[in-house]
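Think of the structure tokens as a kind of shorthand, similar to the way a musician reads notation: each symbol stands for something richer, in this case the local conformation of the backbone. In the example below we present two proteins back to back. Begin with the first one, reading the sequence and then the tokens, and try to describe in your own words what changes along the chain.
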Amino acid sequence: MSAAESDGAPDRNLALELVRVTEAAALACARWVGRGDKEAADGAAVDAMRLLLDTVRMDGTVVIGEGEKDEAPMLFNGERIGDGSPPEVDIAVDPLEGTTLCARGSPNALAVIALAERGSMFDPGPCFYMEKMAAGDEHADLLDLDRPLTETLRLIADRKGTDVRDVMVVILDRPRHEEAVAEIREAGARIRFISDGDVAGALLAVTERTPVDLLWGIGGTPEGVLAAAGIKCIGGQILGRLWPRDEGERRAALDAGYDLDETLDADRLVAGEDVFFAATGVTDGDVLQGVRYQGTSGATTESLVMRSRSGTVRRVQATHDRAKLREIGRAERYG
């Protein structure tokens, strides 16, 4: 054990171990793509992820769990994972980000996990949703949740040296966004709607050489923390503000000491200096290729593996022998 690990700080690239976890989750739930059963798909991903997490050398606590909003299977908040050895870390996890996408066979479903030093991840408490915007390094300083969205679009266009009609915003297709959609269209900017999965949307907005300039919208707070972890590694910025759904949730947040006017940036959402992020594609999408089966026993996956301290971003393409995976784990976990 290294001196750093004995002090409880990560000292090795845990992302290279975490990608085994997201690969297992993706392989498990990919058998449910297009079959219309999002609970079964999510359950398969959760089971596979938990099985592999227990083999990782870490003392992890789930801070951002999965499944609370729709009573799906979960890796619950406060669950201890890993083999119990140092380092001590916070975990944010979504074994299947985009359960509906997987059930429908739609693009951009991912298996996602992030890790940082213990005590560094923002706990959203009773608030399930937050207003957020994200952009890459070239536009990060232009983000402002208090400025009119149309003005931000014009500033991005000026920075790009183009007309506002060349600016593209990725946004969840939800009734709550109708007013903003009208404003974006009135300004002349373009929109790419996504039905679910705004972690993928945030990664698309901050990744170089994509057609998307900005993510905006009201989405899940767990996804906001996961996206912030990825952005800490890949670059760019995300801003968020808690968005209570009703007076009861607002009162619960205030009673718990949350400042509902605070703008939360990437460093506030994930304060750690050594952040690890791994995501594996389940269905083909803008960011990652999904699981593909080869013959009767093989499968391929594509993953992003990132670490903030080194700034390294790896794109990992792997070939899996499912017969051998069955020898390691339970056959049903891998399809």
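Once you have a description of the first chain, move to the second and do the same.
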Amino acid sequence: MINTVVLMGRLTFDPELRTTPSGVSVVQFQVACDRNYVRQGEDRKSDFIDVTAWRQTAEFVSRYFRKGSMIAIEGSIQTDNFTDKDGNKRKSVRVVANNVSFCGSKADGGTGANPAFAQPAPSYANADNSDFEEIVDDDDDLPF
């Protein structure tokens, strides 16, 4: 069976790290993902998807992501059936994150970029190439 989900969107609120009674880290957050299709004359719609992350993934999310941060998530869908306080049968659907990644930067509008990662792009204009041999493109002796 296959149950794999890949999402990219923005956090709708700051994630809050919690710990289970047995000491396991967990964080719950919500990601807003724009839909691909837009009906003519209407605004683009978004889906708001609940996500749970456990252990090191939870600690990573709580440390580096904030409301508005762009995030990429790989995980699986998990459903739970329950009865609410009024006796109505309900179903909850959420994504359990296996891996999360940064997407974009603070300049792209993500408010949660960590300044520790904000390093200038490397410049190769003044690089020392003395250790490299020049590639000669000599195709004359190739049989094709």
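Compare your description with these statements about the second chain. The radius of gyration is 23 Å.
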